[in-house]
Amino acid sequence: MHDIRSIRENPAAFDAALARRGLAPLSAEILAIDEKSRAIKTQLQQGQARRNEASKLIGQAMAARDMTTADALKAEVATLKDQMPALEAEDRDTGDALTALLAAIPNLPADDVPQGADEADNVECTRWGTPRTFDFTPQDHADFGPALGLDFEGGARLSGARFTALRGQMARLHRALAQYMLDTQTGTNGYEETIVPLLVKDDALFGTGQLPKFAEDLFKTTDGRWLIPTAEVSLTNLVANQIVPTDSLPLRLTALTPCFRSEAGSAGRDTRGFIRQHQFEKVELVAICAPEDSTAEHERMCAAAEGILQALALPYRKVLLCTGDMGFGARKTYDLEVWLPSQDTYREISSVSNCGDFQARRMNARYKPEGSKQTMFLHTLNGSGLAVGRTLVAVLENYQQADGSVIVPDVLVPYMGGVTTLQPR
RNA sequence: GGAGAGGUGGCAGAGUGGUCGAAUGCACCGCACUCGAAAUGCGGCGUGCCCGCGAGGGUACCGUGGGUUCGAAUCCCACCCUCUCCGCCA
Q: Which residues bind L-serine (predicted)?
């Protein structure tokens, strides 16, 4: 959500930032509505002021038994009240229009975000690890996975496309990955373990920016709630409408949850395999901090996500997203892309974003800086640390052997009850 | 799901139709006293929005949304949430 005052003060800068996102200028339209809205407000409030004043006088007149004056004043208020509903409606309508307009505008990119149209313009920051040289042709996990317990057919029978069941050693490996990630983020990296609701109300999704624009990407329950598409929604909204005690900042939270996405816009993409599912698990990282700390917090969070890939010895690259590829709420995003041998390319496995005060404004999450009487909006950040399903795919593909078995990465062996290899059946 | 009680400022807690944005206490801030602190005294102390260069003025907000009334924290309706008891249940 954008601050109408900053748009008022510098409409040109606002439009310039929108242009970086590939959007047409909006400040003129916004400010026209804003001006109209304020004019109506002023008029309405003058009416209310007179009504309040007259009502007090009526009280006094009646106490003095001066019915003539009281009746005259009552008549005046009656006239006033005839006009007010129309003004009230107009006030509500312009206010709603302004909110609707502002709520649909994405966050503005940070200055150091590269200009670009789509993912082709993203900038690679670093590469870690060297893709393994295979002495056989590496297979797609969708092909050798079923023999190891990836049950695509079972999932599809139950629930349709993009649902998968995991069985036996595959389920165990998935659990091992999730536990390892959670242990690392709560231990080494100091994020607070959190269990959150998976069903949330409209307000929560508005707060993080999924609503009102992206309802079609979500699943909705019959009682009007929504399944979370990411634990970012639940974790970040924990501070919604709160004034967070300054000494508790930064808040660093993590949660392992299933995530539900309708994938409405991705028909035909990644239809094979375990890459793009309606339901998948993810260890999410969220940080809530003071504005001056969010840049450092962003780097810290990204490092926390990278640590998992490094511990698993999975080659990856870190990419700085360009203006055209960033999500709605982000002002700066790093993607981590893991090497997938079967695709001979890097695929997204984590996205780490600094949202600045964009989400905090939408959900009214504030703090009171030391020595200040004024509350200020917090900064919010979120990142995957990591997407468990995609990490499973990366482990399978990078650790596959010619015989269809998969070696378990060293750090996971304790989580696998000592099992060192997944054997096809 | 049924019955009952209740939702007021950072917290506790008054307030059942007019001068209530709201007593009082605690917490907090400033000042005085003190070498300093405590205690005490005095003063201050909610948020959003609109108007104004400013001083300041206005408006809205007592769970949420409607309604009655010249006037609503207070009356009416609906909904949400919390607590207690009963039922059911992982």
A: 230-232, 284, 384
A282: β partners: A257, A387
A422: enclosing H helix or E strand? strand A421-422
ipTM for the predicted complex comes to 0.81
CATH of the domain at A38: 1.10.287.40
What CATH number should be reported for the domain holding residue A339?
3.30.930.10
| Domain assignment of residue A344, yes or no | yes
Q: Do A303 and A255 belong to one domain?
A: yes
Could you tell me the distance in Å between the CA of residue A227 and the C1' of nucleotide B84? Answer: 32
Range of the domain at A402: 119-422
State the average pLDDT over residues A170-181.
98
Calpha distance A116→A150 (Å, rounded): 38
Q: Which run of H or E residues covers position A90? A: helix A67-103
Q: Give yes or no: residues A63 and A142 share one domain.
A: no
Nucleotides on strand B lying under 7 Å from protein C-beta: 10, 18-19, 47-51, 58-60, 70-71
Q: For A110-139, what is each residue's pLDDT tens digit? A: 999 999 999 999 999 999 999 999 999 999
Q: Which residues lie near nucleic chain B, judged by CB under 7 A?
A: A 4, 38, 41-42, 45-46, 48-49, 51-56, 58-60, 62-63, 74, 77-78, 81, 243, 373-375
Query: pLDDT tens digits, residue range A243-296?
Result: 888 878 899 999 999 999 998 888 788 989 999 999 999 999 999 999 999 999
Residue A95 sits in the same domain as residue A123:
no
With a CB cutoff of 8 Å and minimum separation 6, the contacts of A172 are: A416, A417, A419
In this predicted structure, what is the pLDDT of residue A371? 66
Percent of chain A with pLDDT over 90: 71
Q: Are residues A262 and A142 in the same domain?
A: yes
The total number of structural domains that make up chain A: 2
Q: What is the longest distance spanned by two Cα atoms in chain A?
A: 104
Q: Which of A20, A337, A390, A397 is catalytic?
A: A390
